[in-house]
């Protein structure tokens, strides 16, 4: 049996067995969370630090819940009021975290590669909670778990990832994971929001929603990330929704039982219509949030087993 990984920095490079193992473990945590029996001692005496250099609600809260349900001591570092915001370098921050004897470190950063750098400098197990436009591995895992629970499989499915692909770390992690597990992935959006040569990742590219959604089993909409855009990459919000926003008419092109996903936060009326987002028969957006806690419990559990306990409390 292979040793558990030390960190979770990316989906790229992971093989099907460790991905499936994380999804299977997360399944058990879904059942545990739904039973209400969430008090566990797996991480008793361990310290989990959430270090978020970018704003987050779902991901940070999800990791906080996951850590507490496993019995960890959870600390949320307020970067806006910390020494980091006063000019401290990332390497100095790493030295500080080492002095605190942190066991698990969850990092979100606006620069691609920042979690990887910290992983080289800290003793803690590092989990990438999103870095720049690089990756967001736990989001891809929770998306995969949601898909698998609803459809019963991932291999052979047609998954259409639609919208702002070029700025989306969620898209990159999902492309790596879904293609690794045998899904056929399409990316759909305006040419200005599709990365050059993305076909090398094994995806098909479409610039027309009707063509891109035709027969799709899963429709994953992405937020239009205006804060990362330089210049006018898209027309007005109204024009964007007209051509690339998901409404009932466009969804009708997908498979009859197609499910609708969105990592959040949603821009209603820009990338997705409220009637579609709130459709209980097709939308699994709320289920994605629930799966996030279970997946992050599985990740924390797996990484904690790969490192010795530093203290006996």
What overall form do the CA principal axes indicate? globular
> Mean of the pLDDT scores?
91
Count of discrete alpha- or pi-helical segments spanning 4 or more residues: 11
Total beta strands: 9
**Widest sheet: strand order?**
7-6-5-8-9
User: Largest beta sheet, briefly?
Assistant: 5 strands, parallel
Beta percentage is 5-15%
Structural commentary:
There is one protein chain. The model has no long low-confidence stretch (mean pLDDT 91). This protein is globular. Helix 1 crosses helix 5, helix 2 packs across helix 11 and helix 3 crosses helix 4. The protein is an alpha/beta fold. It is built from eleven helices and nine strands. The strands form two sheets. A five-stranded parallel sheet has the order 7-6-5-8-9. It has a four-stranded parallel sheet with strand order 2-1-3-4, with helices on both faces. Strand 1, helix 2 and strand 2 form a beta-alpha-beta unit.
Structure summary:
The protein has helices spanning 16-35, 58-69, 90-99, 114-121, 137-151, 169-180, 209-213, 237-244, 248-251, 274-277, 285-304, and strands at residues 47-52, 73-78, 104-109, 125-131, 158-162, 184-188, 204-206, 218-221, 259-261.
Q: Topology, pairings included?
A:
Layout: H1 16-35, E1 47-52, H2 58-69, E2 73-78, H3 90-99, E3 104-109, H4 114-121, E4 125-131, H5 137-151, E5 158-162, H6 169-180, E6 184-188, E7 204-206, H7 209-213, E8 218-221, H8 237-244, H9 248-251, E9 259-261, H10 274-277, H11 285-304
Parallel strand pairs: 1-2, 1-3, 3-4, 5-6, 5-8, 6-7, 8-9
Helix pairs in contact: 1-5, 1-11, 2-11, 3-4, 5-6, 5-11
């Amino acid at each position: 049996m292979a040793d558990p990984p030390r960190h979770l920095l990316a989906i790229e490079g992971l093989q099907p067995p460790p991905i499936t193992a994380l999804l299977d473990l997360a399944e058990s945590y879904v059942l545990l969370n739904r039973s209400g029996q969430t008090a566990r001692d797996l991480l008793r005496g361990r310290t989990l630090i959430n270090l978020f250099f970018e704003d987050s609600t779902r991901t940070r809260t999800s990791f906080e819940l996951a850590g507490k349900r496993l019995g960890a001591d959870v600390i949320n570092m307020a970067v806006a009021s910390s020494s980091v915001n006063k000019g401290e370098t990332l390497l100095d921050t790493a030295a500080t975290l080492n002095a605190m004897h942190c066991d698990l470190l969850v990092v979100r950063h606006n620069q691609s590669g920042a979690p990887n750098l910290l992983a080289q400098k800290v003793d803690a197990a590092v989990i990438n909670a999103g870095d720049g436009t690089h990756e967001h591995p736990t989001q891809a895992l929770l998306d995969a778990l949601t898909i698998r629970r609803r459809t019963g499989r991932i291999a052979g499915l047609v998954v259409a990832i639609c919208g702002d692909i070029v700025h989306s770390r969620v898209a990159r992690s999902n492309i790596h994971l879904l293609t690794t597990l045998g899904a056929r992935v399409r990316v759909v959006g305006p040419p200005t929001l599709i990365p050059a040569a993305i076909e090398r990742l094994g995806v098909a590219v479409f610039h027309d929603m009707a063509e891109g959604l035709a027969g799709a089993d899963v429709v994953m909409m992405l937020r239009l990330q205006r804060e990362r855009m330089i210049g006018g990459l898209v027309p007005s919000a109204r024009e964007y929704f007209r051509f690339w926003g998901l409404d009932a008419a466009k969804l009708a092109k997908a498979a009859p039982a197609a499910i609708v996903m969105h990592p959040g936060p949603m821009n209603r009326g820009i990338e997705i219509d409220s009637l579609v987002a709130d459709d209980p028969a097709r939308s699994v957006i709320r289920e994605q949030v629930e799966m996030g806690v279970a997946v992050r419990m599985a990740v924390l559990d797996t990484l904690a087993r790969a490192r010795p306990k530093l203290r006996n409390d």
